[in-house]
Amino acid sequence: MKRKVLILCTGNSCRSQMAEGALRHFHGDRFEVFSAGTRPCVVNPLAIRVMAEAGIDISGHRSKHVGEFKGKAMDYVITVCDNAKEACPVFPGGTRILHWPFPDPPHAQAESPEVLQVFRDVRDLVLKKFKEADRLLT
Predict the structure, then answer these.
(1) Pick the CATH number of 3-132 from 3.30.70.560, 3.90.220.20, 3.40.50.720, 3.40.50.2300
(2) What mean pLDDT do residues 82-102 have?
(3) Considering only 18-22, 25-29, 105-109, which range has the smallest mean pLDDT?
(4) Distance from C-alpha of 36 to C-alpha of 13, rounded to nearest angstrom
(5) Annotated catalytic residue: which of 88, 126, 127, 137?
(6) Judging by DSSP bridges, how do beta strands 3-9 and 31-37 pair with one another?
(7) Percent with pLDDT over 70 in the chain
(8) Does residue 95 sit in helix, strand or coil?
(9) pTM to 2 decimals?
(10) Residue 101: helix, strand or coil by DSSP?
(11) Cα–Cα distance between 22 and 102 in angstroms, integer?
(12) What sign has the CA pseudo-torsion 60, 64, 66, 69?
């Protein structure tokens, strides 16, 4: 039986989407993975682009409100930003709450070499952390 993991951020537009894609890519055989936001908006096209560069397709993802998961049992909730950590709701059962913060990439959706590099840097941090997640989620 797969353990359920919810990755929580504010907008569910970038960091949590990248993390959802990464955890599913690396360890989808062990974890059922979801992501949500406390104030969701839309998935940032630059997040989709830089994940595709790494061979992970998140183009079918959508931003979801954390309320969609209210009352659902989760084994882990991982907050990837400080705002989500502060606003994280209570989940039933023995949910373990972990805080793995990542830098917030620019909210701009305009593409420039500098902005793309920031997204790539955040992606690389996310990939490294979630590749090791099978050891960290025990």
Answers:
(1) 3.40.50.2300
(2) 89
(3) 105-109
(4) 9
(5) 88
(6) parallel
(7) 99
(8) coil
(9) 0.94
(10) coil
(11) 14
(12) negative
Hey, how many other C-beta atoms are within 10 angstroms of the C-beta on 87?
15
Residue with tokens 């941090």: 125
Q: Which has the closest alpha carbon to 63: 19, 15, 12? A: 12
> How many residues are recorded in the chain?
138
Mean model confidence pLDDT for the chain? 93
**Residue among 64, 17, 5 at smallest CA distance from 37:** 64
**Residue 14 annotated to the active site:** no
Q: Which of 43, 81, 126, 127 is catalytic?
A: 81
Among residues 6, 7, 8, 9, the one annotated as catalytic is 9
* Residue whose token pair is 């840097």: 121
Rounded to whole angstroms, how far apart are CA atoms 38 and 11? 7
